[in-house]
Specification:
Layout lengths: L4 H35 L3 H35 L14 H9 L3 H21 L2 H8 L15 H35 L3 E4 L3 E4 L1 H28 L13 H27 L7 H30 L3 H19 L6 E4 L8 H9 L13 H8 L5 E2 L5 E7 L2 E9 L1 E2 L9 H7 L3 E2 L1 E5 L13 E2 L4 E2 L7 E2 L8 E4 L9 E5 L14 E4 L7 E2 L3 H11 L3 H4 L8 E4 L3 H8 L4 E2 L4 E5 L2 E12 L8 E2 H5 L16 E2 L1 E11 L5 E5 L5 H9 L5 E2 L5 H4 L6 H14 L4 H6 L4 E2 L14 E5 L8 E10 L7 E6 L10 E4 L9 H10 L1 H11 L3 E5 L3 E5 L2 E12 L9 E9 L2 E5 L2 H9 L21 H23 L5 H26 L35
Parallel strand pairs: 3-30, 24-25
Antiparallel strand pairs: 1-2, 4-7, 5-6, 6-9, 8-12, 10-11, 13-17, 14-15, 16-17, 18-20, 19-20, 20-23, 21-22, 23-24, 26-28, 27-28, 28-29, 29-30, 31-33, 32-33, 33-34, 34-35
Length: 982
């Protein structure tokens, strides 16, 4: 049934309108992308990617249409003059042809259009493979099997594989398309019983196509020979004994057989009949089964398995050497470490006195504390996982817990488009707390704090327009004469007034260069379409100097301008040269390094800390090569992205620099201020420790047995996932000075005692500092982190005091369990926090105790010094650099506290004993309860006395904010009273 004339005319119009709308959306998206890249001065990246993808799309689509469409056209042109059934009863093919023939051109064009769209999109998606091939850089190293430069496998092999897959797809589709056309137009027909009658043209055409397919198969067999370096058949990744001695020659033989069979198929053009193609097909199948499958299986079963260790030994060694090189652990230094605990007591006391101001504040625990003490207003927020950096404290670099105060959502009931996108546009301020200081209440002593900023860092731009939690987009900027509408920070009251009840605010107008100008109507229209928001056109606050800020997360901005890099999941803020910048480590990765073990990057870097970083736990590509090639920064005020070539010797980075010329600056341009805050990246260290859990074994025979393999222990505090590595300032055995390090521990497989300790110089003075491993003797059981935690909790004194802490309606939280080489042995240090048990928005943890373990001796004190004295005896001296603001000795003595705790425990035990007697001794129970009450009252007095203990404090230094706001109230400056003298 035909449609009425009017609907038939409307259908093309509707299709045209839809096509125009889609085209406009696509073009507006492309243009706004260009505007963004231009705003960050990386328009060359946009143009390179766009031109490369367009070129690959056009070439891929054109080749596919030429090959497939050309073969279908050829099949149609060589159709017989009179199709079978033309003058007789119509057959099935004739019915289909009669129905299709009037529309064949439309069907052909639509089919080719769809094929071009899918093919072009798929080919354009391979732009990275093409750019790596076109700009390949030699490694200067050869693979162990073929003696080829590694660049062949890293850059050329993936491209050849991509090209071969494309040609296979084109030929297979050509065979299918040509077969359908020949069938519909009488080139061949099916006859009973099971016969096939074909014209000479159809037979010749299909013979050539089959011959081309088999010829491509010969090329595939040839390429498969080189792909054996990525085999997973053997004990380890890479070509195994069977691959080299059976599969490799088999591939060569199959390539020759395929070449011969291709010639046989080509011979079908001049010799009619199906005998030659049938022989060729049979020979292909038989040889692929016997030579390609059966022969390697027999070699594996009867030669390799009975003698696997000796047969695989040289290939395991290849895997060990390549894996260590590819993951950058080939320079790791392994030192035997006895971990003895019988060192002379006086020596231990001396070393304990020399321990640097150790970081005990745990960035994984303290986010609620920062939130409560430095949030200032409810619309600001801190991340769940804080960061560790180094800042001068009393003239000496100290580990410092840092974070920025980012903007969150507007207050409840105040959510609307104007507040979301024009008023609440940015965070404000940098917050820092030395990792070795708390006040008398167990709270961090903030060396940088408050709004406007007060502290030791001097003047800097405090506004955070680009951060990890910034809104998806904000409209900022305007003429200086216009009234500011952006909320800058809460208005400070006059000194001595109640800051919390002051409801004023200071507004601001953005003056940076970040964002895309949207002063004209056309751009506002583009972004209104992009975000589906008419307010971008109608709001009167948007003016000729307005800018739109979007793509604001540091990782996302870097990924946009450098899509070839893999980013570390933990950006961290730093104050550098008067600006807050985000520092992000970036990696070049590959999964085509010959013989190197392939691992999932997600599994390599996941630990108990990963969930706190706010990164989705989605699988990432497998890798077998990684380098920390780039250090990237993002300016928190104007969003400027800067890339520095950190490992300038990396051939993969050199290749990308050829493709995107000029976007990566040399390492020599890193300023001293920025270099002071660079650190060894955590994700790289996590990947390397996972590799070294097995690949610390460098002998192939020992690797085969696997008995010396290690694993990363579970996090003792949470018993969930793996323990994260820790940044801490420490001194390695044999070193004269302490250094900022990244550390981790290993335990043996199936056991929990310590196997090894690993550290790396995290100050980032060189691109690839050697990893240092202290390997403990396998014949002596030294406590690993889980066992150390168990010793803490099973200690009578510790458990008693922890139970008392829990008894007051509080929860006990364990901080990071730090492991340090000390006195020839291993020292464990763990902070203990408490927080209210009630689930309220105002609860936060405070540091109350410090646990120390050395050998079998446990210390549990209110400070690190107290705990060390309990373990080593004597008096642990205070480092000279901290005496100026050292906490005055609290009124309660350690002996008084211990005595009160002992009496409380005895009273509790007596009461339980009285209840358990038969019948219960109620008189004894009452006496015990009275004694318990007295002991608890005494503990409460000791706590009150400690809270009111006087301190000696230096005058805090205040710095003026660029905002020019009023100075903070003196009451906003907490008194620094460090308790960790270590």
């Amino acid at each position: 049934m035909r449609l009425p004339r009017r609907p038939r005319l409307l259908i093309p119009v509707l299709i045209a309108v839809v096509a125009i709308v889609v085209l406009l959306l696509v073009l507006s998206g492309i243009y706004t992308d260009y505007l963004w890249y231009d705003s960050v001065n990386f328009s060359s990246v946009f143009s390179t990617m766009l031109l490369t993808q367009v070129l690959l799309f056009v070439v891929g689509a054109a080749l596919m249409i030429a090959i497939v469409g050309g073969n279908m056209v050829l099949a149609h042109r060589t159709r017989p003059m009179f199709a079978p059934g033309l003058f007789g009863a119509p057959q099935g093919a004739d019915r289909y042809r009669v129905a299709l023939d009037p529309h064949r051109r439309l069907v052909f064009l639509v089919g080719m259009g769809v094929l071009a769209l899918f093919t072009g999109s798929s080919t354009a998606g391979q732009w990275k493979t093409w750019l790596l091939f076109a700009n390949r850089t030699p490694f200067g190293q050869k693979d162990a099997q073929f003696g080829l430069d590694l660049s062949f496998f890293m850059f050329t092999y993936p491209f050849l594989r991509m090209l071969l897959n494309f040609l296979f797809t084109a030929v297979i589709l050509s065979i299918v398309g040509a077969t359908i056309v020949h069938y519909l137009y009488g080139g061949f027909r099916l006859s009973s019983p099971g016969g096939v009658h074909a014209t000479r043209a159809a037979r010749s055409h299909l013979s050539v196509l089959l011959g081309v397919f088999v010829l491509l198969k010969a090329l595939a067999y040839w390429l498969d020979m080189y792909g054996l370096v990525f085999s997973d058949r053997g004990k380890t990744f890479g070509a195994s004994y069977t691959d080299v001695h059976a599969v490799l020659p088999a591939k060569g033989i199959l390539a020759v057989i395929s070449l011969i069979c291709a010639l046989i198929f080509f011979a079908g053009v001049i010799r009619p009949g199906g005998m030659f193609p049938g022989v060729a097909f049979g020979l292909l199948v038989l040889s692929s089964v016997l030579i390609g499958t059966v022969y390697p299986t027999l070699v594996e079963q009867f030669q390799v398995k009975p003698n696997q260790q000796s047969k695989e030994q040289p290939y395991i060694q290849r895997n060990i050497d390549a894996t260590r090189k590819a993951y950058g652990v080939d320079t790791a230094k392994v030192t035997e470490y006895s971990a003895k605990t019988d060192t002379d007591a006086s020596v231990l006391q001396t070393e304990a006195s020399a321990i640097p101001g150790m970081r005990l504040l745990d960035p994984s625990v303290l986010s609620p504390t920062f939130q409560q003490k430095q949030q200032i207003r409810g619309y600001y927020q801190f991340p769940d996982q804080l960061d560790i950096d180094r800042y001068p404290v009393d003239g000496k670099l100290r580990d410092t817990v840092v974070a920025v105060r980012e903007i969150g959502r507007p207050p409840e009931g105040q959510r609307n488009w104007i507040n979301d996108h024009l008023v609440y546009t940015h965070g404000f301020g940098f917050v820092a707390a030395p990792g070795n200081k708390v006040d008398s209440s167990g709270l961090p002593v903030f060396s940088e704090r408050d709004i406007p900023p007060v502290g030791d860092l001097g003047e800097y731009e405090p506004r955070i327009y680009f951060g990890e939690n910034s809104p998806d987009y904000s409209i900022v900027g305007g003429p200086k004469s216009a009234k500011p509408i952006e909320l800058d920070y809460p208005q400070q009251g006059q000194p001595g007034t109640d800051q919390k009840n002051n409801t004023g605010q200071v507004n601001n107008t953005y003056e940076g260069k970040g964002g895309v100008p949207i002063g004209n109507f056309f751009r506002r229209l583009l972004y209104a379409v992009k975000y589906g928001e008419t307010n971008l056109l109608l709001n009167s606050n948007i003016n000729s100097e307005s800018r739109i800020l979007y793509i604001r997360q540091p990782e996302e901005r870097i990924q946009q301008v450098a899509p070839f890099l893999t980013l570390d999941r933990d950006p961290y803020p730093a104050v550098v040269d008067g600006r807050i910048v985000w520092i992000v480590d970036a990696y070049t990765t590959s999964d085509f390094y010959p013989y190197s073990e392939r691992k999932s990057l997600e599994s390599l870097t996941t630990d108990v800390q990963s969930s706190r970083l706010g990164v989705p736990q989605v699988p990432r590509d497998e890798i077998n090569y990684i380098r920390n090639s780039v250090k990237a920064t993002v300016d928190a005020y104007d969003g400027t992205v800067t890339l520095y070539a950190w490992d300038e010797s990396d051939p993969v980075l050199k290749t990308w620099e050829k493709a995107f010329g000029g976007i990566v600056k040399p390492a020599s341009e890193i300023s001293p201020g920025l270099r002071a805050h660079l650190r060894y990246p955590a994700d790289l260290f996590k990947a390397q420790r996972e590799i070294l859990s097995s690949y610390h074994v460098t002998d192939a025979n020992a690797f085969f047995s696997g008995q010396d393999f290690w694993k990363v222990p579970e996090d003792p505090a949470t018993q969930k996932s793996k323990q994260p590595p820790y940044y801490v300032t420490m001194k390695m055995p044999g070193s004269e000075v302490e250094r900022f390090s990244l550390t981790t521990t290993f335990v043996p497989n199936q056991r929990q005692n310590m196997a090894a300790f690993m550290a790396v110089d995290a100050t980032a003075t060189t691109p690839n500092p050697p990893l240092e491993i202290l390997q403990l003797p396998s014949t002596t059981a030294i406590q690993g982190p889980p066992q150390a935690q168990n010793l803490f909790e099973s200690n009578t004194t510790v458990s008693t005091q922890l139970n008392l802490l829990r008894g007051g309606g509080t929860d006990v939280l364990y901080g990071n369990l730090l492991t340090l080489p000390f006195g020839g042995g291993l020292l464990y240090v763990e902070p203990v926090y408490i927080q209210p048990r009630a689930e309220t928005s105002g609860r936060y943890p405070t540091l109350r105790r410090v646990l120390v373990l050395y050998g079998e001796k446990v210390g549990f004190g209110s400070t690190l010094g107290d705990a060390l004295e309990q373990v080593f005896g004597g008096t642990v001296a205070t480092p000279p650099d901290e005496t100026s603001d050292q906490q005055v000795t609290p009124p309660e003595s350690s002996s008084a506290l211990t005595s009160a705790l002992d009496r409380a425990q005895k009273a509790f035990d007596d009461s339980q004993k009285a209840l358990s007697s038969n019948p219960p001794d109620w008189k004894a129970y009452g006496d015990a309860q009275n004694a318990l009450k007295k002991a608890l009252d005494e503990l409460a007095k000791l706590k009150d006395a400690a809270a009111s203990a006087p301190t000696v404090s230096p005058s805090p230094s205040a710095s003026a904010s660029p905002s020019g706001g009023p100075p903070p109230s003196p009451s906003a400056s907490p008194t620094p009273t460090p308790v960790f003298s270590g």
